[in-house]
Here is the input.
Amino acid sequence: MKVIAAYLLLVLGGNTAPTAEDIKGVLGSVGADCDDSRIELLLTQVKGKDITELIASGREKLASVPSGGGAPMAVAASGGGSAAAPAAAEQKKEEKVEEKEESDDDMGFSLFD
Here is the structure.
């Protein structure tokens, strides 16, 4: 995933055809290690293809994948970005934790017992 992210950062930065050395440079700048075989695999898969078309076809494929929750998929399909879905999941976890903490406040007995 980090190899893909580095590739996309390079494309976003204006490099329309990043090389293996470019990707290694980005990953090395943040102290991440990289596997040369994964870099070469990515470069062979995207060679001669437009990145925006690849992303669009990937979104179409993801839209057809069934999921348990409708809200995160709707956000991803509408192009809202991937940061919204984890934030929603994190908020749900926080709500569950708060409910549990509130029930622990009664200390095991009720006022009317």
